[in-house]
Amino acid sequence: MNAFQKAKAAGREFLIERVRKNEIPFGITTGKNTVSIVTGLHNHDREHMFLRIIEQNPEMILQGLAIAGFLMNDAKILCYLPEEETELKELLEKKATELNVEVKVHLGKIPSDILDTCLYCNFIMLKALYETVEETYVAEYYLCTKYKSGKEEWYGNPQWVKPGTPLNKLIEMDQKKIKAIQLGTHLYLPEILEKSVVDSDVWNLDTGVITVFDQDCCMIHEAEENLYRGRRECCGKCTFCREGLLQLHTRVHEITTKNGEWGSMEIMKELSEAMAYSSRCSVGNTGADFILDTFQLFEQEYVDHIKKHTCAEGICSAFTNIYIAPEGCIGCGSCIKECPEDCIEGLPGYIHMIEELKCTKCLRCMKACPEKVVFCTTGRVPSIPDRLTHVGRFKRY
Q1: 99 is a domain residue
Q2: Which H/E stretch holds residue 17?
Q3: Is 146:211 a contact under the CB 8 Å cutoff?
Q4: Which domain holds residue 245?
Q5: What's this model's pTM, rounded to 2 decimal places?
Q6: Tens digits of per-residue pLDDT, 260-297?
Q7: Residue 391 in domain
Q8: Mapping DSSP to helix (H, G, I), strand (E, B) and coil, where does residue 112 land?
Q9: Are residues 299 and 205 located together in one domain of the fold?
Q10: Contact assessment for residue 213 and residue 153, using Cβ atoms and an 8 Å cutoff
Q11: Do 32 and 79 fall within a single domain?
């Protein structure tokens, strides 16, 4: 017998008692009349890490869904996958037919009206229900660590982690260089690493991703990226979510492009709070969590950007200047060939110059220069030529 058949043979009351004994949080959490069981990623999940669970063992998840439906008096079963997961949808439908599990698989976000009247189960819970029936249940969580340094990012290997594991045991980075930690949709200072997995006051299992920002990250730039991704995830049907994300992203972009005004800070806080209470799904409800946390934890960075016109980490290109040191330039033309905007002037044997208004500060010229004399600075640019000058003949006055 498969797990679903074993569940039916054991009976609902016996199985419910097992679920309670294992402390699996299975129960009606939204709405008064549960008319369906629904699974999928949270609407605000942008990492899609939990999809690996269903990709690795679709039979287990489908049987977990069937068990959940059985526990809720044969409730209708729905599964929502991201729109691009057409192959996974076909695989699940094929496996469901083989297992005789009645499930409707949809592509797209979970509709907010369904969330009002359903029992939501994530893939971790479905795995737990399956293992409860098979008597192999072990409490554990599927986690992956994402690292961000400046504008670069990379992922660690996903792993199953037992409750009580300290968060700092999961980090493969010098913890003295860590600036902030993102758990779920919220941002924390490095002290959070002393906590353990599943500490109720800090842990959020919605995405299964721990994001680590090092000291080279500008948190306002990260907030802008976060809001941009939120806008892409927004379906556009909810006014507070659609307009709130647009207004927040626009105002943060003004800050990172040297056009921010201190008065917009209060407006952004009000918008963020309104979104949390008035949006119809988690895209809007949690869409401003990150930026609200940056207001509280990294206010000084907003002061630097808006009032001092500096980005201490040199990430926001509007606050940086690129120049070629005239005393080191050999006039080789390497930077000219690499520039995608054709904004570097110079001839062979002449000191090259960057036309600042056209420069997008992609830094490709820095990497191309064999003499390493192309510099990026947040401070003042030293004296440089304003006309064609032979190599070695420029003098500072």
Answers
A1: yes
A2: helix 12-21
A3: yes
A4: 219-306
A5: 0.83
A6: 999 999 999 999 999 988 888 888 889 999 999 999 99
A7: no
A8: helix
A9: no
A10: no
A11: yes
